[in-house]
Amino acid sequence: WDSTVVGLLHCSFPAAEADLLYNGYPDGAEITDRLILWRPLVLLIPLRLGLTDINEAYIETLKHCFMMPQSLGVIGGKPNSAHYFIGYVGEELIYLDPHTTQPAVEPSDGGCVPDESFHCQHPPCRMNIAELDPSIAVGFFCNTEEDFNDWCQQIKKLSMLRGALPMFELVEHQPSHFSSPDVLNLTPDSSDADRLERFFDSEDEDFEILSL
């Protein structure tokens, strides 16, 4: 798959709580009351943007993700090298290499963990965006519900970006073509192998899972 669907699924409440329509509060609840339920949210979205190389159609969309105020950067790299990408300049990605071998850090008597050595010891580096491995994970942080709603709007605008493909989509409900465990008639004790075999078991497909 070249894109990922991020679903914003609505929970179903019992009949006695049918009036809980907005984030666990009645529709007429005060905004300040609604904000109490919100917790800071970190979104890590794994993606594959091509087969062996990144598809150029996703590059502009990826650049726009770095420009969002909610962006935490991108986890990725190239073969045998993992990097943390924090931005871009032109056609180059700016990255940090946090891999540093060091002794384990012991908490102090007060319970604090010294983090002086947790930071990268080397300045940021650059690499051409075309060298990026297609398997990445984009990260976002929404401190408030307003941040999250703003992020949703920005992602929807990215889907209309001319000359670029969206890396993922937002949907209000689970798409009908996404099979659920109920549809697959799986029991809670089904093994992972059973789940995979049933998920891909279709007369309409020309492939099968081979056991090695």
UniProtKB/TrEMBL annotation:
Annotated compartments: Cytoplasm, Cytosol; Cytoplasmic vesicle, Autophagosome; Endoplasmic reticulum; Mitochondrion
Major site of localization recorded for this protein: cytoplasm
Record keywords: Autophagy, Cytoplasm, Cytoplasmic vesicle, Endoplasmic reticulum, Hydrolase, Mitochondrion, Protease, Protein transport, Thiol protease, Transport, Ubl conjugation pathway
Domain called Peptidase C54 catalytic: residue spans: 38-154
Enzyme class of the recorded protein, top EC level: hydrolase
InterPro entries documented for this protein: ATG4_LIR, Papain-like_cys_pep_sf, Peptidase_C54, Peptidase_C54_cat
Superkingdom of the source species: Eukaryota
Reactions it catalyzes: [protein]-C-terminal L-amino acid-glycyl-phosphatidylethanolamide + H2O = [protein]-C-terminal L-amino acid-glycine + a 1,2-diacyl-sn-glycero-3-phosphoethanolamine; [protein]-C-terminal L-amino acid-glycyl-phosphatidylserine + H2O = [protein]-C-terminal L-amino acid-glycine + a 1,2-diacyl-sn-glycero-3-phospho-L-serine
Biological processes per GO annotation: aggrephagy; autophagosome assembly; mitophagy; piecemeal microautophagy of the nucleus; protein processing; protein transport
Enzyme Commission identifier(s): 3.4.22.-
GO cellular component terms, semicolon-separated: autophagosome; cytoplasmic vesicle; cytosol; endoplasmic reticulum; mitochondrion
GO terms, molecular function: cysteine-type endopeptidase activity; protein-phosphatidylethanolamide deconjugating activity
Similarity comment: family membership: Belongs to the peptidase C54 family.
Entry function: Cysteine protease that plays a key role in autophagy by mediating both proteolytic activation and delipidation of ATG8 family proteins.
Protein name per its UniProtKB record: Cysteine protease
Native source species: Pelusios castaneus
